[in-house]
Design brief:
alpha+beta; Thiol Ester Dehydrase, Chain A; 34% strand
């Protein structure tokens, strides 16, 4: 039994509440501390469907927020999203793998400004941009 004051070692951003793999948020994040950048490989599963065959925009917003939030946590510690602006360009097909690339643009006092792109892994398709 864990005591309330003991630190939790599992630091997953999304807890798996679905027994089947590959149907929800499937992702891995990588931190590049020298560039103040977090890159995420994301594969949306069938439970994230919006328009038939494509990921719901809300799931794209969620993975963007989690990726840039992880980047902000590295720079500033404890953070929360104050404003998230997303421009959607192309839908993300379910089961495809996309690159969510976030970086710190500037820091002003307690505020951390970040930007993010969601693109195909070959860089040929831009799905969304966010700040």
């Amino acid at each position: 039994m864990k005591l309330a004051h003991e630190k939790k070692k599992d630091t997953r951003l999304f807890l798996r509440s679905i027994e089947a793999e590959g149907v929800g948020f499937e992702y891995v994040m990588f931190l590049n501390s020298s560039e103040k950048r977090v890159v995420c490989l994301f594969q949306p599963g069938s439970y994230l469907e919006g328009h038939p065959g494509f990921a719901h925009g809300g799931s794209i917003a969620t993975i963007i927020d989690s990726t840039i939030g992880s980047c902000a946590i590295f720079v500033a510690g404890r953070v929360m999203t104050a404003n998230l602006s997303i421009n959607y360009m192309n839908p993300v097909p379910l089961g495809s793998v996309v690159l969510v690339d976030s970086k710190v643009d500037k820091v002003e006092g307690r505020k951390v400004f970040l930007s993010c792109k969601v693109q195909s892994v070959d860089g040929g398709t831009l799905h969304a941009e966010a700040t």
